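Table S2 (text version). Query chain:
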Amino acid sequence: MKKLHPPIKPYNEFYLKVSNLHTIFVEESCNQNGKPIIFLHGGPGGGIEPIYRQYFDPKKWRIIIFDQRGCGRSIPNAELKENTTWDLVNDIEVIRKYLK
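Corresponding structure-token output:
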């Protein structure tokens, strides 16, 4: 079994409006100049867990993790309207464009 990397704190946390109804919580951690990677948490009703950051080499990766619609610190919590797989795909694209 592969060992986890040491605990990592995010260097950037923010909210991003992705629809008239939904605002998602996003965080970045590790190497600001590293190769970007987006991690998707499980569900339903999941959210960001600090251990997720430890799965990746902090020297290599710029880790982007977000609370998906209706989950974790995203607003509104537990909302199922406008919360489909295609909405998730769109949210990833919004994050990608926002972070360049």
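Notes on Table S2: The chain has one helix and four strands. The first strand starts at residue 10 and ends at 17.
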